[in-house]
Amino acid sequence: MDNRYVALLSVYGALLIGPVVWIIHKLLFVLDSINRYFVRRHQEAWPFKTTPHVRETLVAPPPSDIASWHLVTEEGRQRWEYRGKGSGKAPEHTFVDKYHLGIAPQAQVKPARSPSEALDSGAAFLMKLQHPTSGHWPNDYSGPMFLLPGAIFVKFIIARGDASKMFKFPQQRTEFIRYLRNMQNPDGGWGMHTESHSTMFGSVLNFVSLRLLGVDANDSAAKAGSRWILERGGALSIPSWGKVWLCVLGLYEYDGINSIPPELSILPDWLPFSQGMYWCHARIVTTPFSWFYGKRWKADSHPLLEAIKTEIYVQPYAKISWAKHRSDVFAPDIYTPHSWVYTVANKILLAYEKVHSKKLREIALKRALEHIRYDDESTDYICLGPVNKVLDMLITWLVDGEDSAAFKRHVERLEDYFYIGYDGMRMSGYNGSQLWDTSFAVQAAVACGVEQQFEREMAKAYHYVDVAQVREDPPAAHAFYRARTKGAWNFSTRAQSWQVSDCTAEGLRVALLLRNKLSVLRHTDTMDDSRLFDGVDEILTLRWAAGDGGWGSYEAPRGPRYLELLNCSEIYKDIMVDYTYSECTSSCVHTLCLFRKQFPQYRIEEVNRAIDEGSRCVVSKQGPDGSFYGSWAVCFTYGAWIVTDALHMAGFDETSPVFKKACAFLLGKQRADGGWGEDFNSCVRQVWVENPDGSQVVNTAWAVMALMAAGGATHRQEVERGIRFIMSRQLANGDWPQERISGVFNGNAAIHYPGYKNSMPVWALGKYAEWQKKHGA
User: Which residues are catalytic?
Assistant: First the structure.
């Protein structure tokens, strides 16, 4: 055929198809807007109350056992090791060990006599929480109740059902059981997270975990868990993630789940729904799920698994019509209902499943495995997060064998996710929050002006920030949809390697704040200007310059918003694509402003543009009532603080309408005792929900800092009442008690930031001291 004729056909084809594609594209945006409206109404009407994160410890640890655990750190990597009888001479506990184990001396509430005394006491205690060798602030980062079950399931499969061989330390099994007992709700179920009502997702996964850990079916906790599940119709209505996990265990059938074809990994990149368009967590978790689905792999039969089938299903397992339950989800679990677009898409995929090419399936499985291996290797087997970590570990065991170097490294790195407390051992939502908590602790100290007083501690913190910076880009990044990482800081450790926009901003800010203030760094500073420039380059690269000018979490948004129509998780919101967030954008704007002061010549036009457009992006996210929704913490107080602090740095003052509205919103929420108290359901429902436990120290610290940044001296009385409330909750040793949970992701998953109860009130007290000097006592 003549080449000119082919070219002509291509032009005519494009002219014919182009308008059709454009119409479909626009139609999907309209459908997405309609769907978001109805989903938002569903979420705003969320009827379920939260439960306190801090609970009575029903099963306390034997004193000798809990005291045998020690935190081992290496440049931020943290693992709890058991050093009891027969394990050699145990090292002396550090104060950090004792504090996190819950065996440090307990203090009572004893308010300081003045804000300066509260500041001194709080700052001194905050410094005691720094790890003495690593220099970071270690913390528990748990909360979600669906993470630990995945690790237990995989360990059970690999140990071939022998509970005594499942974990590195036999005592881990004891501590996992203790944690699951302590987190069981009074009605016998378990929640999606530690403040959640009982859900089918949490109850089935954690009940099965108890049984796989060796707890007898007649045990009181097991009987209560099974009863809760059966009285509500059984495990058939577990959400989609739970269905996949049960399939892998052989406790559910693949005919009963919606299609997750591995062919998603070989879709052309130009398609708006190709794999690279999705948020990193969505694509990284979907890939191993699709591998198992494509293989229809499940664990070998085991007597215990056969027994569990009778304990989680009302009807005999062999008589279940699985296909009828693909979209069957227990109503109290549904946070984000399926869209009808997803329902239609799923029918198409199920039809494809009946006729798919075996050869194409093998190609897709091979490509999916390449993506899985890439995340393993580029993170030194830490992986992006705990869900894909354990899935990837099981796949590595299946493909490479238990004697392979890759599998052995997976096993070693799994320990990075386990964290122990007085109520037992749990699984963290990352391999820790090392960089994040360290950056906030340092900034709190700087706000107090005590960096010289605690120069040794600040130098150690600076060293950690130094070693935590990522120095190179991932290899073959484009082929695996990875963004630039050189110059980035991530949430935890350098080895984890996944860049995060606000973590990069906070890490760089610490470097900028400390490098010229510590005399000890004059001859030992290894972070030269080029490293700081790398950090700025990373921040500028991650900005959505082609969109609203703001910053997403891990990457600039890629796919169209209407991909959220394909959200099949049921339990999360805003999970399919990355979005620009007021908090991430504010962190980046704040740090760029500080950088511009110190380096006014470096990429100045781009830095100025990023600050201006980023500020406009943040302002555009303010609600009509003056609020800023917090997507990563609870909730409107957090949003108000981090936004006003950044905009103040960018030149906004108390005359700004944005600030006036923000202050009015906060003032309307201050309680009679001077504090502020938000419930986790503020995140869930996306409207202010008062905390049933009353004012919270962390919420109050955020609100007070926001009022000082946005209101100048205008709201003196309200600020001082907030400061007095913070002082009223302080303990005699400078600590503050743990209250309600203060972190969140994707709207419906609570996550624990225990470090906030120390860094945030100290930060607020430091800001208050500075504010008093500026505006007069």
Answer: 502
